[in-house]
Amino acid sequence: MVDRLELGAIFLGGASGALLRAGLGDAFPAEGGEWPWVTFLVNVTGAALLGYWFTALPHTSYRRPLLTSGFCGALTTFSTVQLELLEMLDAGRIGLAFLYIAASVAAGLAGVWAATAAARRAEAA
Amino acid sequence: MGRDCRGTQGGGGLSWAVWAGVALLGGCGALARFGLTLFVTDRLHAHFPLGTLVVNLSGAFLLGLLAGAALDGDARLVLGAGALGSYTTFSTWMLETQRVGEAGRQKMAVANLVLSIVLGLGAVALGRLIGTQL
To answer: What is the per-residue pLDDT across A64-76, written as a single tens digit (0 to 9) for each?
Structure first.
């Protein structure tokens, strides 16, 4: 029952997403306890892209697992956000931690919502 | 997948082997997330997106472990940014929250946000605490 091509697509997308995120993190390193721009931007962008592709791509296409579970899933990260929040709290920057998670979630949800609406409009047209 | 992908770092940029390790473990992290999410979802016929929560909390715990064990350099990049960064996901968390809310389950959507953040912080802190004992 396992679709090897689907798994291959998820692997390829995951490898690409991880490389892009890690490459950006290496190019623009963030200090612990500071606003992590790379994580913030890849997460918000990845959430919007996922909203679009999850809505628009047909289940029959291998581009769907490649770009949704693979690329967007790997480009964005939850664990790094939690460690960044913990380091902000360590540094006593509680306000920054609150702002960071609130902005990430608000922008992430808004991105998913807007991209989903755009994909549905495109489909209806 | 127990291969060691670390490369020796001869000044300047990271070696190709490190990036190959990030890509390889990044791909594996995505597959592990996909597999575990399916496993949890198949066993729980509920509207709550528990699969992603389990993935994200376990990944946060493991990243805390790496941080606590003071693992850094190439190994940290490959395991932390590559494997765990890829394994855990922000985009799916947001998508599932939006879809649950759109389906009229606003309380469940809020619970998914709050539980993920609070338990995620607890998981990473616990991981780090245990990591320092290693």
So the answer is: 999 999 999 999 9
